Amino acid sequence: AVDISQLRAKTGLITLDPGFGNTGACTSAITFIDGEKGILRYRGIPIEQLAENSSFTETAWLLIHGRLPQRQELDLFREQLNRHAPLHEAFKHHFEGFLVDAPPMAMLSAMINTLSCFPRRWNTATPAGPDEEFYEEAARLISKVRTIAAYSYRRSMGLPFIYPDPKLPYVANFLHMMFSMPYEQHMASPEVVEALNLILLLHADHEQNCSTSTVRVVGSSQANLFASCAAAVGALWGPLHGGANVAVLEMLSKIHHGGISADQAIKLAKDPKSGFRLMGFGHRVYKNFDPRAIILKRSADRVLSQLGVNDPLLDVARQLEEKALTDPYFVERKLYPNVDFYSGIIMRAIGIPLNMFTVIFAIGRMPGWIAQWAEQHADPKARIARPRQVYIGNTISDYVPIDDRR
Ligand code: ACO
């Protein structure tokens, strides 16, 4: 058998895998994906069953603990989520330091990092596995990220903060803190709560995607849970990852307001020189369909008809979807609508402002980030992440004094 480490030491052999398309960086028992068959399972349970029967909070518990909770365990988790919802008053001053209209994603990352300044115990997961104190920290983070998200929005609008209401469940409480329910009752209608709950649940984990890998890379240096998740928010922000739900809506708006037809948009997306991609289409792993997108498409149809939404951007979305699904370019490359395509549409339909789309993705992904961080810390084989490179620059050049440089 070939000893790879010895071979590498002797020859400098390195595998080059840009974007880590075929490199496994860890073992994991959290989320199972079969991209060819369009299968997604959390702890073995099909995403379709969870979407049908579970809630975001129960699914969060499942991801972190590795099994479905007993009733009293779920009750305790809900009690923890309520108890941890308020932010320390010092946070208000921190928020006030941001300019009004600062992007909520920037505030979210900063504030999650700030949570590490109020430590109970920082690195609570040990090789012996997570303990009760870690689970309490997990509940604290899942609860507080929702309050931070809502406050980020209020700050970005120059509006006063609204305290959490302990009587409200997770999603309704978030909508209450964002929109102040007494004034905007429609925001807490059962259809809206249900749709948002489903979006969060479907985003709760997705194995080693860009932001989750960030959690593991940062966590591998034994940085604390909050610092690791704050870094993940940065990774999520980009338009090729979580920011795609914003990019979808911006694209639909550009097409609609620019008088571009769906056919023209498809033509542009197929031209590599145009620099234009159909946002919300394609996926690194799913090569037939994204099972989350199928569930969300049904939800989008339901929500739009229940709320009687009539929106020209949503018509553009339907036309693009219809045309791309039969166009040979998209069919050959296996480019199908992904979860961000429909989540953007639903969030727009239920009145979530654009600058909160990716923030909501982050709230949803938090249980996955936490579960992955804990799994990594409990893995005795885990090592600090330190990829190699294939160097293509000059191997040696002489230093030239500044007056001699040409
Ligand atoms: N529109 C047009 N062409 C596309 C698109 C698209 N959305 N996505 C991929 N392609 C083309 C590429 O140009 C490439 O064509 P080529 O083979 O002729 O060169 C081929 O399909 C393969 O694309 P890659 O970029 O190599 O695929 P990769 O796996 O690296 O990227 C990604 C996946 C980032 C999701 C890509 O499909 C994309 O940019 N999609 C739009 C952004 C988006 O929706 N991101 C959300 C992803 S899901 C999530 O984060 C929750």
From TrEMBL:
InterPro entries: Citrate_synth-like_lrg_a-sub, Citrate_synth-like_sm_a-sub, Citrate_synthase, Citrate_synthase_AS, Citrate_synthase_bac-typ, Citrate_synthase_sf, Citrate_synthase_typ-I. GO terms for cellular component: cytoplasm. One of its GO terms (molecular function) is citrate synthase activity. One of its GO terms (biological process) is tricarboxylic acid cycle. It catalyses: oxaloacetate + acetyl-CoA + H2O = citrate + CoA + H(+). Keywords: Acyltransferase, Transferase, Tricarboxylic acid cycle. Pathway: Carbohydrate metabolism; tricarboxylic acid cycle; isocitrate from oxaloacetate: step 1/2. Gene3D superfamilies: 2.20.28.60, Citrate Synthase, domain 1 (1.10.580.10), Cytochrome P450-Terp, domain 2 (1.10.230.10). The active site is at H283, D340. Belongs to the citrate synthase family. This is Citrate synthase. It comes from Aquisphaera giovannonii. The gene is gltA2_2.
